[in-house]
Amino acid sequence: MNVIGIVGSPRLNGNTELLTAHTLKAIAEEGIDTELIRLAGLDIRPCNACKACAKGEQCSIKDDVFPIYLKMKQADGIILSSPVYMGSASGLMKAFSERTGYIARNNNKAFKGKVGGPLVVARRIGHNFTLAELNFWFLFEGMIIPGSSVYWNIAFGRDKGDVLKDEEGMNTAWDFGKAIASTLKKLKGI
Fold first, then answer.
1. Can you list the domains of the chain with their CATH numbers?
2. What is the pLDDT of residues 38-86, one digit of tens each?
3. What phi, psi does 165 have (nearest 5°)?
4. Dihedral through CA 127, CA 136, CA 179, CA 71, nearest 10?
5. E strand map for 64-162
6. Which of 120, 114, 122, 121 is nearest to 146 (CA)?
7. N or C: which end of the chain has fewer CB within 10 A?
């Protein structure tokens, strides 16, 4: 089994990446392989509505999205994490999730039945909307979203490293990772 965490922050080693790595560590402790993928610095362009993905498992835009989509398709679990920008998910995450979502939906619902969910980081506002926005993506794809059993998958932070001071947020992310691992094991009969 494997779970990938995709960080939709344009800032390397920032709060969103720290929170995602922390969640993946909780999953890895349960004997599940994990991989962290950073969208920062990659060529991620928005969907142009060409509908090439409806004609086969492909995308007409030649950038870094499709190779990551293939990893998502092979994964048992997917985490999408985003900082809050202007009260919403980052543009990087929006472009990425739209593209991979359309490819999957148009090709046998490739993510259906996988386990996963979102992680969100912001300084003050926009957590709830961004969490809902990303949750809708998982639901639209037919995925299973386990609850953290503590609180919503959000944490607070602005400057690099601030999220590490949010004890409740870090605990919630850890519990979310454990819930992903537990759900995967139950689904696999382990």
1. 2-184 (3.40.50.360)
2. 999 999 999 999 999 999 999 999 999 999 999 999 999 999 999 999 9
3. -85, -10
4. -110
5. 77-85, 88-89, 115-122, 154-156
6. 114
7. C
